[in-house]
Amino acid sequence: MSYIYNDAYEHTYYKPSDDLQNLFQIQVIQPFRETRPDVVSLYDLPNIDEIKRLSENILDRGTTNFSEQSVDKQYGVFTPKDKVSLYCVHYMPMHLFSTYHIFRHYLTPISHNVVFIDFGCGPLTSGIAFWAATSQHNITYIGIDSSTSMCNKAFTINQHGPYRYSSSPFFENVYLITNYQDLPRFMNSIEMGNPDDTHIIFNFSYFLQSYTFSNPANIKHLSEIINLLTSQSEDSKICLVYQDPVVPAFQRRWYALKSFLNFTTQDVPKVATLAYDRLIQGRKHYNVKVSYDIFHKR
């Protein structure tokens, strides 16, 4: 049974299964209703203009510091936990379905063992998408997010697992860390299986939007870490997956990162278009465009 469905007539219109909808309800919508009923009322109406204003102010298009509180003139203080909840309601479905679309349609066949390294993992969004798209079971998941609150949400969602009546998590082998600079040391400490049958996937879903990478020196430093990791794992298959809004500023950062990497690369990112239903108000969000790129070392 599919975890994510295509509409029968519109194949890039994605809908959650009952189990995924249950996860959204228990782990995203319900906590949001309990902690911020004042904000939920905006989504129930829905008040589109006020939702847009609030999300831009508090979430800053997803680039906010989720480790710090923020203040809105109308709705007061948003704690890190509040901001994570707002992010999940506002962005998680879009990111989940767009990532699923990319993995499902454009990711080449993968090996038996997978090490999925998720830069800017958020609330496990890309992890769920990969799990649903590939039906892969032997996965070591490494999520990286600078926010402890976001890592805690990823842990909770992983433990909830995919199915309503099962206690199994999405991933048995899951590691959540807050600093990508720790990756080389961390990778040396975990068991990854036979290198000849291991596929290492570096996933960058909206990661380069961070203000950190407005500084070219930080992009260069990130590339050095990736090159070090790939040199340590040269016997494994290695793949990079990138996704961002179709915004030239973010694509320039991706071009800069690619230019420093020892990979065979595509010429330009491509654009995927899809649709999905928003959480809470259930309105269809159509003609969603995302930029993506996939390339391999071996």
Throw out a few tags for this protein:
alpha/beta, Rossmann fold, about 25% strand, two-stranded antiparallel ribbon
Secondary-structure map with pairings?
Blueprint (H helix, E strand, L loop, with lengths): L3 E3 L6 E4 L1 H18 L1 H8 L3 H12 L10 E3 L3 E3 L1 H27 L6 E7 L5 H10 L4 E6 L3 H13 L12 E5 L5 H5 L10 E8 L10 H17 L4 E9 L2 H12 L10 E8 L6 E13 L2
Parallel strand pairs: 2-10, 5-6, 5-8, 6-7, 8-9
Antiparallel strand pairs: 1-2, 3-4, 9-11, 10-11
Helix pairs in contact: 1-2, 1-4, 4-5, 8-9
Strand order of the largest sheet: 1-2-10-11-9-8-5-6-7
pLDDT < 50 stretches: none
CATH topology: Rossmann fold
Strand content: 15-25%
The tally of beta strands, per DSSP, is 11
Helix content: 40-55%
Shape: globular
- What radius of gyration results from the CA coordinates? 19 Å
